Amino acid sequence: MRVLVLGSAAGGGFPQWNCNCRNCRGVREGSLRASPRTQSSIAVSAEADPTAWVIINASPDILAQLRGLPELQPGRRPRDSGISAVILVNSQLDHTLGLAMLREGDRLQVYCTASVRADLTTASPLLRVLENYCGVDWHEIELTPCTFQLPALPRLEFTAIAVAGKAPPYSPYRQASSQGDNIALRVSDRLTGRSLFYAPSLAAVDTALLEWMKSADCLLVDGTFWSDDEMIRSGVGLKRARDMGHLPLSGERGLLSYLRALPKVRKILTHINNTNPILDEDSAERRELEQAGIEVAHDRMEIRL
Ligand code: MLT
Ligand code: MN
Ligand code: ZN
User: Fold this and answer.
1) Is 201 near ligand 1, meaning CB less than 6 Å away?
2) Is the pTM of this model over 0.70?
3) pLDDT tens digits, residue range 251-293?
4) SS3 (DSSP) at 66
5) Sheet strand arrangement including 218-222
6) CA-CA distance, 35 to 298, in Å (whole number)?
7) Residue 72, domain extent
């Protein structure tokens, strides 16, 4: 299985257009050792058939991401794409606005839960808008049973796991979360038995989730914030990581405390907010990750499993 990181930043990207936090200013001025990043998305393919890919989350940056990855354009016909389907893990704007950028293509094959579809047909009616362009075939991700396959990628098996998280600010589910607002995905290669656990939005880890994480070969998980009050401390906002549905990395029950307990698994952080000190390659926090054997995803990173 091949996993290409299309974008590794949280909503807003890095640097964010209106942000002058230490990281954004530093990367803009060239005074910080850090790489710009686009918003969170990955492409997955079974290695044997590199002409068919599934995109997991469609970021508003998708056009720039695709331009930088010609592998996703097989070029078989005058109009063509390697994107055979799109899976959405939630209905956040940074994960869904890119659907509108794909409107010139064939009918979109969109896989998401019923509650994500509800958001995308009512409060943010993207799927309805797209009916007037390419059209959308919705495939429901049911949570029981939760395993599914994609016709174009028969070697891969997908398992959706409901995880704690927050629906987007525009959603009626924001204050009363419903199961299926936010999922993690396990992607297994049926030929090699190797698997990826992908969860760019994770508000909590319980024992059941830890078992899923333990059994994967590689984790690509929520690295949004280092600390709960990071936005406040950076002077850019009043929201706490936990209010936004992201478990901070540091602290007694932070995500790192769980990752450290999984020594055999490859661990990579993604969906990194522009305020997060781990973006600064010279920071103490980045050093701490290196010492714990935890990687930081970057755009165009390739993971072979
Ligand atoms: C989130 O995951 O919380 C979002 O990235 C927030 C946003 O879209 O700005
Ligand atoms: Mn996000
Ligand atoms: Zn910033």
Assistant:
1) yes
2) yes
3) 999 999 999 999 999 999 999 999 999 999 999 999 999 999 9
4) helix
5) 147-150, 153-162, 183-189, 195-199, 218-222, 266-270, 294-296
6) 8
7) 2-304
**Is residue 94 within 6 Å of ligand 1 at its C-beta?**
yes
pLDDT digits (tens, 9 = 90+) for 58-108: 999 999 999 999 999 999 999 999 999 999 999 999 999 999 999 999 999
* Three-state secondary structure of 119-181: HHHCCCCHHHHHCCCCCEEEEECCCCCCEEEECCEEEEEEEEEECCCCCCCCCCCCCCCCCCC
CATH code for position 291:
3.60.15.10
Domain count across the chain: 1
CA of 105 to the centre of ligand 2 (A): 25
SS3 217: coil
* Share in percent of the chain as helix, strand, coil (round to 5): 25, 25, 50
Ligand 1 atom nearest to 246, measured from its CA: 3
